[in-house]
């Protein structure tokens, strides 16, 4: 573990009469755009600026990660407050500005960003150290004030006390003194048994403002003189504007300007509705000569064709050819996965204002540093002149981590094309959002298993065909090796099962122009399905219980085995299910998957009606994510992940017809509703390991667990997602 | 000029009569708690109360609600039911991203104002049109029951 240097900026400021202890420089509240101005850029080169204690006893934790629902603000605050021994009720959280020199993701080198379920894991030491340092400074300030040894001083719930003399002071009363203390070179962190917040119940910090309408999202920003932009986008990927007629659009009351940008034609108006009416009144002639014109059926047919030939090897062990040649029995299956839209409830949007000193952005985004560079390029600025005010995101699931900064760039292009005269809020309507691409890529998988005469699994071949998310992105150098995009094969190339002969290979078509992106759990959103459903097919062929087979093959994987055992025990694996209504068939299925260094097993119970309609009744989850910083949030994330994954398994599909996206709104792309939500139980494995991700790992096992339950009920193991009720008819 | 009665305050707004109530609330009156999710009455994010009944403001032309009693999430804590619902939501930490929750809460308040002891089926009917992409449904259901209990 590296020791951090935390510079006490307020020590310098103290001489100028600034009261309060600040580790690093702090910004005024970012949610109040009017307040964010000059002061915010005054001193912005201090590392590790995570905490501000006010003389009013307020404790403000600066969160470097985007809060998009996953509970990261609460989690980050918990880490710091734990070591500070703050009173949780007085802690408030503030979004950090974009500044990778202070707020980089420690797992991503010099880049600031939120993703890959890394927020807690990379902040675990950093924020606890920040809290412990501040605590030590408060203690040493109190020791001086009272003329007592520091060792006699106690801190609890925001109060520093000297029990022998019964004296005590609140944080705020010591803040000014503490600001004059040197930052300790070394601090000792608490032992887990001394935790008062970590692993206990710390209520979410955003519950109040998200239940009274006061939470501010990008969509809610209104700056003086701001115009709202709604854009006409081409009907196909790769098409461009040939010409357009803005006459009718300009006659719409409220419309101020119509500008051409690289990605279409933008209508600028005083308000959203006028901008939309103006956009709808545009006539645009598109140049589709270089547009992508294949349909999803054709893409899939091509992928199946490609799967006939070997691809680039992503993982190899033993001698697969020999194993298959010697097999007593071979099991084969193919799996198809559609394009999926993230469909966050808040469609993409972005506010940008260009000023004399740079540009200022209001947005919820996952890749701050990448977006800063993109915008700097467009405006001819230095990246540090791009100031980003981080707001809550109304969901993201990866969409606000665009590797090409697509919608952020679009907003900037509008600002540029309109001469930077007015601040612009780019608003994507639902249809714009759903048709803009950056989907979870469509994939085809082909699997084969070799069984010997005793039903033992001796060989495994897994071939994947699908577009790369990372090729051509800034992440390519880091995560594409020898033509293999790591996220195309994650979950498949590192299959946990002990199979002596294995080969996993990959085809990456490069002539499909549909933009693709990470979608909550990335590669595992399809690899967990194909591997775990196929394993049940193997179990069936070998006459083995799916749970026993997994445990047998997981001999050297204790964490996988432990969550499997826990989920199975809690679900009553092996006990008979209560029969459903007459004519229905019921089944129970299990799946386990590791993603983002967390382990999740799920057991699903389903009822399949004679007409093939499906009800998922109950999902029992067991989770090992290391130390659960906030167990209630771990449960919440897994509950949500179950619903998110079930939504995709039941309904999720973006289809292309001659290159045009068919679905535009929630009628064509339905999301899970409350009546389809199963009962969910989440059991957390006690752990002393470092915390790992929880935003995503609940997603991958759900669809395979449900499919395996369907298989148990009907004998049919669905070969495609979303499930088709035609396939499940009695 | 269209006369609106929002959260007990009267406003005269100068907007095209076909403008959906949603955008008048958000862009003209600055009441941004009511959210845009689909614009087609498909998601419930924009749910408000008109004469105490839940309504999708994105699909309601402002001219249709002139003079009627409109209530938004910003007003929720002014009623006993509204307070009970918000308290239950906070107690159970229902929210994740939060973007759908104004609509969820407005639907829940409307339900509990009519029905103090809703069954799961009643909840499914009343909140079935409120999508939550974060799928907080387990807790939404529990929070409606908790609010009902606290009102009993
Ligand atoms: S925005 Fe009105 S129902 Fe979706
Ligand atoms: S809390 Fe995110 S959409 Fe409901």
Descriptive key words:
heterodimer, A: 730 residues, alpha+beta, Aldehyde Oxidoreductase, domain 4, seven-stranded mixed beta sheet, five-stranded mixed beta sheet, 19 helices, 29 strands, 28% helix, globular, disordered N terminus, B: 152 residues, 2 domains, 5 strands, binds FE2/S2 (inorganic) cluster
Strand content of chain A: 15-25%
Low-confidence stretches of chain B: none
| Major beta sheet, strand line-up of chain B | 2-1-5-3-4
SS element count, helices of chain B? 5
| SS-derived structural category of chain B | alpha+beta
| Shape, principal axes of CA atoms of chain A | globular
Supply Rg of chain B. 15 Å
How many strands in all of chain A?
29
Number of separate domains of chain A: 3
Largest sheet of chain B: 5 strands, mixed
Oligomeric nature of the chains: heterodimer
User: What do we call the CATH homologous superfamily of the largest domain in chain A?
Assistant: Aldehyde oxidase/xanthine dehydrogenase, molybdopterin binding domain
Poorly predicted parts of chain A: 1-48
- Classify the secondary structure makeup of chain A into a structural class: alpha+beta
Q: Distance between the terminal alpha carbons of chain B, to the nearest Å? A: 43 Å
Question: Pair with the most extensive interface?
Answer: A-B, 65 and 58 residues
Short note summarizing the structure:
The complex is a heterodimer of chains A (730) and B (152). Chain A is α+β, with helices and mostly antiparallel strands and 730 residues long.
Protein model, in words:
The complex is a heterodimer of chains A (730) and B (152). With 730 residues, chain A is of the alpha+beta class. Chain A has three domains: 6-212, Aldehyde Oxidoreductase, domain 4 (2-Layer Sandwich), CATH 3.30.365.10; 218-289 and 348-427, Aldehyde Oxidoreductase, domain 4 (2-Layer Sandwich); 296-339 and 440-728, Aldehyde Oxidoreductase, domain 4 (2-Layer Sandwich), CATH 3.30.365. In chain A, the strands form eight sheets. In chain A, strands 10-11-8-18-15-16-17 form a seven-stranded mixed beta sheet, sandwiched between helices. A five-stranded mixed beta sheet of chain A has the order 13-23-20-19-14, with helices on both faces. In chain A, strand 27 (656-657) and strand 28 form a beta hairpin. In chain A, helix 10 runs parallel beside helix 11 (406-417) and helix 15 (524-542) packs parallel to helix 19. With 152 residues, chain B is an alpha+beta fold. Chain B has two domains: 2-74, Ubiquitin-like (UB roll); 75-151, Orthogonal Bundle (DNA polymerase, domain 1), CATH 1.10.150.120. Helix content of chain B is 38%, strand content 14%. Chain B has a five-stranded mixed beta sheet with strand order 2-1-5-3-4, sandwiched between helices. The longest helix of chain B is centred in the C-terminal third of the chain and has 15 residues, at 137-151. The interface between A and B is large, with 65 and 58 residues. One FE2/S2 (inorganic) cluster is lined by residues 36-39, 41-46, 56, 58 of chain B.
């Amino acid at each position: 573990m590296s020791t951090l240097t935390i510079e006490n900026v307020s020590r310098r400021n103290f001489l100028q009469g600034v009261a309060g202890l600040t580790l690093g420089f702090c910004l005024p509240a970012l949610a109040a755009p009017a307040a964010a101005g000059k002061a915010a850029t005054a001193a912005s080169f201090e590392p590790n600026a995570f905490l501000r204690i006010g003389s009013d006893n307020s404790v403000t934790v600066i969160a470097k990660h985007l809060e998009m629902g996953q509970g990261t603000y609460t989690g980050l605050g918990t880490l710091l407050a734990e070591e500070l021994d703050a009173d949780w009720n007085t802690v408030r959280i503030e979004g950090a500005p974009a500044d990778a020199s202070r707020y980089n993701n420690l797992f991503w080198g010099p880049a600031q960003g939120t993703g890959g379920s890394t927020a807690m894991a990379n902040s675990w030491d950093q924020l606890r150290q920040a809290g412990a340092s501040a605590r030590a400074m408060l203690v040493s300030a109190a020791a001086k004030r009272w003329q007592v040894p520091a060792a006699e001083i106690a801190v609890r719930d925001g109060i520093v006390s000297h029990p022998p003399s019964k004296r005590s002071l609140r944080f705020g009363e010591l803040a000014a003194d503490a600001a004059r203390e040197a930052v300790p070179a070394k601090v000792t962190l608490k032992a887990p048994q001394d935790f008062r917040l970590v692993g206990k119940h710390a209520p979410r910090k955003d519950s109040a403002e998200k239940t009274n309408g006061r939470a501010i999202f990008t969509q809610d920003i209104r700056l003086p003189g701001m115009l709202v932009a709604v854009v006409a986008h081409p009907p196909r990927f790769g098409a461009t504007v040939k010409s357009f007629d803005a006459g009718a659009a300009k006659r719409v009351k409220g419309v101020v300007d119509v500008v051409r940008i690289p990605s279409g034609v933008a209508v600028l108006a005083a308000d959203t509705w006028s901008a939309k009416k103006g956009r709808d009144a545009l006539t645009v002639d598109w140049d589709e000569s270089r547009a992508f014109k294949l349909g999803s059926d054709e893409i899939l047919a091509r992928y199946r064709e490609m799967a006939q030939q070997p691809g680039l090897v992503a993982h190899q062990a033993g001698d697969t050819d020999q194993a298959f040649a010697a097999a007593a029995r071979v099991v084969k299956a193919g799996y198809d996965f559609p394009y999926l839209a993230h469909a966050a409830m808040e469609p993409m949007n972005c506010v940008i204002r260009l000023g004399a000193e740079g540009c200022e952005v209001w947005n919820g985004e996952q890749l701050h540093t990448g977006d800063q560079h993109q915008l700097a390029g467009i405006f001819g600025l230095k990246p540090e002149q791009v100031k980003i005010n981080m707001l809550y995101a109304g969901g993201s699931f990866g969409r606000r981590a665009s590797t090409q900064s697509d919608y952020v760039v679009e907003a900037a292009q509008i600002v540029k094309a309109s001469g930077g005269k007015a601040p612009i809020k780019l608003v994507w309507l639902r249809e714009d959002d759903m048709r803009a691409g950056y989907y979870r890529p469509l994939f085809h998988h082909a699997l084969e298993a070799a069984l010997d005469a005793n039903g033992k699994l001796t060989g495994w071949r897994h071939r994947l065909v699908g577009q790369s998310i990372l090729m051509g992105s800034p992440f390519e150098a880091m995560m594409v090796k020898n033509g293999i995009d790591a996220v195309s094969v994650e979950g498949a190339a590192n299959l946990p099962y002990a199979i002596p002969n294995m080969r996993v290979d990959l085809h990456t078509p490069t002539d499909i122009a549909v933009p693709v992106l990470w979608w909550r759990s990335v590669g595992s959103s399809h690899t967990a399905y194909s591997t775990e459903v196929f394993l049940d097919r193997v179990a069936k062929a070998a006459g083995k219980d799916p749970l026993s087979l997994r445990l047998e093959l997981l001999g050297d994987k204790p964490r996988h085995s432990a969550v499997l055992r826990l989920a199975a025990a809690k679900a009553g694996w092996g006990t008979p299910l209560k029969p459903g209504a007459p004519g229905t068939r019921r089944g129970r299925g299990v799946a386990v998957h590791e993603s983002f260094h967390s382990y999740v097993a799920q057991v699903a119970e389903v009822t399949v009606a004679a007409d093939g309609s499906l009800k998922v009744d109950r999902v029992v989850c067991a989770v090992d994510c290391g130390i659960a910083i906030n167990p209630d949030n771990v449960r919440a994330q897994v509950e949500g992940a179950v619903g998110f994954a079930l939504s995709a398994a039941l309904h999720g599909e973006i289809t292309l017809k001659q290159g045009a996206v068919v679905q535009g709104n929630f009628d064509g792309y339905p999301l899970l509703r409350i009546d389809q939500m199963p009962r969910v139980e989440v059991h957390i494995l006690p752990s002393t390991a470092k915390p790992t991700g929880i935003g995503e790992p609940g997603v991958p096992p759900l669809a395979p667990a449900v499919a395996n339950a369907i298989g148990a009920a009907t004998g049919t193991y669905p070969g495609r997602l979303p499930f088709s009720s035609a396939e499940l008819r009695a | 000029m269209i006369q609106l009665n929002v959260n007990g305050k009267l406003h005269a707004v100068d907007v095209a009569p076909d403008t959906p109530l949603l955008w008048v609330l958000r862009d003209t009156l600055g009441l941004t708690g009511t959210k845009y999710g689909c614009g087609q009455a498909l998601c419930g994010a924009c749910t408000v109360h008109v004469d105490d009944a839940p309504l999708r403001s994105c699909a309601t032309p402002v001219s249709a609600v002139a003079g009627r009693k409109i209530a938004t999430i910003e007003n929720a804590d002014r009623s006993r039911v509204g307070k009970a619902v918000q308290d239950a939501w906070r107690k159970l930490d229902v929210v994740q991203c939060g973007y759908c929750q104004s609509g969820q809460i407005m639907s829940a308040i409307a339900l509990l104002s009519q029905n103090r002891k809703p069954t799961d089926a009643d909840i499914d009917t009343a909140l079935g049109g409120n999508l939550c992409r974060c799928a907080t449904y387990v807790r939404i259901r529990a929070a409606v029951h908790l609010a009902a209990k606290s009102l009993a």
